[in-house]
Automatic annotation (TrEMBL):
<feature type="domain" description="OBG-type G">
    <location>
        <begin position="5"/>
        <end position="292"/>
    </location>
</feature>
<dbReference type="InterPro" id="IPR013646">
    <property type="entry name" value="YGR210-like_G4"/>
</dbReference>
<dbReference type="GO" id="GO:0005737">
    <property type="term" value="C:cytoplasm"/>
</dbReference>
<dbReference type="InterPro" id="IPR012676">
    <property type="entry name" value="TGS-like"/>
</dbReference>
<dbReference type="Pfam" id="PF01926">
    <property type="entry name" value="MMR_HSR1"/>
</dbReference>
<keyword id="KW-0547">Nucleotide-binding</keyword>
<dbReference type="GO" id="GO:0005525">
    <property type="term" value="F:GTP binding"/>
</dbReference>
<dbReference type="GO" id="GO:0016887">
    <property type="term" value="F:ATP hydrolysis activity"/>
</dbReference>
<dbReference type="InterPro" id="IPR031167">
    <property type="entry name" value="G_OBG"/>
</dbReference>
<dbReference type="Pfam" id="PF08438">
    <property type="entry name" value="YGR210-like_G4"/>
</dbReference>
<keyword id="KW-0342">GTP-binding</keyword>
<dbReference type="InterPro" id="IPR012675">
    <property type="entry name" value="Beta-grasp_dom_sf"/>
</dbReference>
<dbReference type="InterPro" id="IPR006073">
    <property type="entry name" value="GTP-bd"/>
</dbReference>
<protein>
    <recommendedName>
        <fullName>OBG-type G domain-containing protein</fullName>
    </recommendedName>
</protein>
<dbReference type="InterPro" id="IPR027417">
    <property type="entry name" value="P-loop_NTPase"/>
</dbReference>
């Protein structure tokens, strides 16, 4: 059983993807401290922080996550990150790593688009001056759109013919066409609902009447649902970044009742300095500073001579740390990298679910109350029901499903939707016990 949540980091060369991955993945984590069977070279594990139910239920001492960790009721749940390198303009026509890049995207639940906000790299990742990073956001979206739209447009006349012959529902026909992009029917349904709500297509769900432009519009709305995108506006420590940031935030200000521009909205833009975070982490590891990812400051011996476990800084490190403090932490409140992970999980609305053997001691055993509590936390898509969760956990739990209950021995119906804080601590009973 594992959380299959996948976040893909994309962006032009030199935007800072690898630095971002280094900044959020925990190299010091114990090998195997994640529920994924294989980790490819271009993957990393990041941790999504959430409030663990152990403190509310008074079992913090017994809380022993099998993967990730829990400290003072703050739990860190592993998620998988992909470094999708090699995207250059023209990828949808096969330039650069083209189709391989796009194939990687199929696995992703969310995209993190790392954008160089400093304007010092051009669209091919070469050094430049005064490059406008707004172009990067538009370009990435148009590559993905060209890829999906191109594929579906080619088949469209045949699709419409079959659709008419079989009298299928529009959503089912579209789902069949889009399933190859790792798409659930639910996502297609949401896209269709949006089309109808915002009156984007006159023929609505009568797809046999759709023009090419209608189809293109639908693909756009579909992509917004299928690939929620967090923009990490990176390199905020550099000189021209602030004016570029202001322009981008203005351009993507949220407008009610219109489709997203380039699939991006202001609330999904996070300012980051991946390089600063990498440096701060290194300083922590070498015991020069005290700092926790997400914090708005660090402490060195200079700040507090009582921190005798820390080592004395040299001038070079001191200058660099001063810079990070002035240009990043004081100005923007953090290096931003942790916030990107949080927004990525929240963009899909993932629900944490805690499968337990006992809803009294929350342990892995119903009889031994000294056993570890809340060992597992699985992130599931919004709308997941109790029975779907059982199936996701283990085939046998589904086959032998006899019932489920939550805290207070409340019985759950199998089609109850799982909601955080309400019924997401679940004991499943089977007939074969
Ligand atoms: N100033 C600054 N430089 C950065 C930042 N993030 C990455 N870089 C630098 O940008 C260059 C490209 O970074 P890299 O992570 O290799 O980019 P990738 O090609 O997208 O994987 C490297 O020289 C990094 O040190 C940042 O936040 N600030
Ligand atoms: Mg790289």
């Amino acid at each position: 059983m594992s959380s299959s949540f996948v976040v893909a980091c994309v962006g032009k060369p030199s935007a800072g993807k690898s630095s971002f991955l280094n900044a959020v993945t925990d190299a010091a984590a114990k090998v195997g401290n994640f529920p994924f069977t294989t980790i490819e070279p271009n993957q990393g594990i990041a941790y999504y922080p959430l409030e663990c139910p152990c403190s509310k239920h008074g079992v913090s001492k017994q809380c022993k996550p099998r993967y990730g960790w829990c400290k003072n009721g703050r739990r860190f749940v592993p998620i998988r990150l992909l470094d999708v390198a090699g995207l250059v303009p023209g990828a949808s026509e096969g330039r650069g790593l083209g189709n391989r890049f796009l194939d990687d995207l199929r696995q992703a639940d969310v995209l993190i688009h790392v954008v160089d906000a400093s304007g010092t790299t051009d669209d091919n990742g070469r050094e430049a001056k005064g490059y406008d990073p707004v172009g990067d956001i538009q370009w990435l979206r148009s590559e993905i759109e060209a890829w999906v739209f191109g594929n579906i447009e080619r088949r469209w006349p045949g699709v419409v013919r079959r659709h008419k012959a079989t009298k299928s529902l529009a959503v089912d026909t579209l789902h069949a066409q889009l399933a190859g992009y790792g798409t659930t029917r639910d996502i297609v349904q949401r896209a269709m609902d949006t089309v109808v709500r915002l009156q984007l297509i006159e023929a609505r769900d009568d797809i046999s009447q759709w023009s090419t432009e209608d189809l293109r519009r639908f693909v756009g709305v579909f992509l917004d649902q299928r690939f929620p995108t967090i923009v990490a506006l990176n390199k905020i420590d550099m000189p021209d970044a602030d004016k570029n940031i202001a322009a981008i935030l203005k351009r993507y200000r949220r407008q009610p009742n219109v489709v997203l521009r380039d699939g991006v909205s202001e609330e999904n833009i996070v300012l980051t300095s991946a390089l600063s975070e990498c440096f701060l982490r290194r300083m922590v590891k070498q015991r020069f500073i005290e700092y926790t990812t997400g914090d708005d400051d660090f402490k060195s011996l200079d700040d507090d001579p009582a921190l005798t476990e820390l080592r004395e800084l040299d001038d070079k490190a001191r200058r660099r740390l001063d810079n990070i403090r002035d240009l990043v932490l004081f100005r923007y409140g953090s290096t931003g990298v942790q916030e990107v992970i949080v927004r990525a999980v929240e963009a899909v609305g993932f629900v944490p679910v805690y499968p337990v053997k006992s809803v009294v001691n929350f342990g892995a055993s119903s009889t031994d109350s000294s056993s570890a509590a809340f060992q597992d936390c699985v992130l599931v898509r919004p709308g997941t029901t109790v029975r779907e969760f059982a199936r996701k956990m283990h085939n046998q739990l589904d086959v032998n499903f006899a019932g489920a209950e939550t805290v207070g021995n409340l019985q759950l119906a199998e089609d109850d939707v799982i909601v955080a804080g309400k019924n997401n601590i679940i004991k499943i009973t089977t007939t074969a016990q």
